[in-house]
Known about the structure:
- The chain is an alpha+beta fold.
- It has a domain at 28-161 and 186-215 and 236-292.
- 39% of the residues lie in helices and 19% in strands.
- It is built from 12 helices and 9 strands.
- The strands form 2 sheets. Strands 1-9-7-6-4-3-2 form a 7-stranded mixed β-sheet, sandwiched between helices. A two-stranded antiparallel sheet has the order 5-8.
- α4 (80-88) packs antiparallel against α5 (92-104).
- 28% of the residues are buried.
Amino acid sequence: MLPWSHRHRRRLLPFNPSSPPLPPPPPPLLLSRLHCRERLLVNPVYWTNRQLELLQCSFNDPSPAPPTTQSNFTGERNGRWFIGRMFRIWKLGCRRGQILNIVSYSDCPLDNWENLRFFFNGRFRGHLKCNALFLRGDTSAPLIAAYVDRQQLELLRDEALRPRLRRKQGRSIAFALFKIRLKSITPTEPLHDPYIAALLIAVAQRQHLVALEQQGYESERNCILTFSPQVLVSSKDKECMHLYTADISSSFLEMLIRPDVPPPAPTSISIQITVVPYKPYNTLRDRLFALLLPPQSQDVDRKRKIGDEGTQHLPNKHEAEELITCP
């Protein structure tokens, strides 16, 4: 043991700029063992700010969407029929169905499927409830985005925790505990919902998988790539939706595949939030696609518009197979 004066002197030594850099953060599995009293490795429906902190995910303040001059969806193709129906029946099921019609109806460049897979430690850990958006006619292409409604997330948390008791005995205590637990996993700031961060990661995982399959596993893992997942979120708010975007590196995704191995460099995710107003309704479809689609896909859709102009019509009762109706 050094004398007190020596120990004190060591703490006052000036910083040496040539000293080695700080070590990378510990891997997730090690963190879960260090904090063994906390439930850290849980389904994303139970995520809180604690998981965001450990994964170094943060949300930025909302910003307005940039102006667009895109006009590929005009006249009957602008989706106003769906918007009108959505505002007439402003309920969760109808809102989700009509927004999906706006972005993935048969005359749109996007299509959708239900739910996304979430992987951790090299294994499938469950489905995340959402609608995945991809380029129409090309399921092998990288995923574009996910769509979810904020009220849907509230119901997911409620369903995950709600007690299912057949007997009346102990019901009041069970529901009192249910309310406490539900409050503990409900974000205090709805715009900063941890489940949305998990959806961004799941979209990036899918994009990463496609890149590995298309260009070879070994060649891709030898270089660091950046993926740009997006999540479109609606809510009870009749004024606007929000589009969440982030740049997620392949080293972050590899850390989730092998959580017992420290990442080669510090990894973090900064999540951007873009406000997308519903009004003006006539341009909503164009404004959404200007944000969602990569530039090359917008060029393809512009050519498609020229070929389809004058042939589009409003949905009718004979098109029920394509139309997502209100439940």
